[in-house]
Amino acid sequence: MSVMSSRPALRWLVPAAAVAVVVGGGAAVGTLAATAEPSLPPRTAQQLLVDLQTARLDGLSGTVVQSADLGLPKLPNLSGGGSGTADITSLLTDTNTLRVWYSGPDKTRVALMGTLGETDVIRNGKDVWLWSSKANKATHRTISDADAQAHQLPNDLPITPQEAADKALAAVDPSTEVSVGRSATIAGRDAYELVLAPRDKTSLVGQVRIAIDATEHVPLRLEVYPKGSDQTAFQIAFTQVDFARPDDEQFRFNPPPGAAVEEETGTPEADKPDAGLPGHRDGAKTPEEAGLSTVGSGWTTVMVVKGDGKQAEGAEASQAAQVFKALTPVSGAWGSGHLLSGRLFSALITDSGNIYAGLVSPERLYEVALENK
Question: Transmembrane stretches, by residue range (predicted)?
Answer without folding.
Answer: none
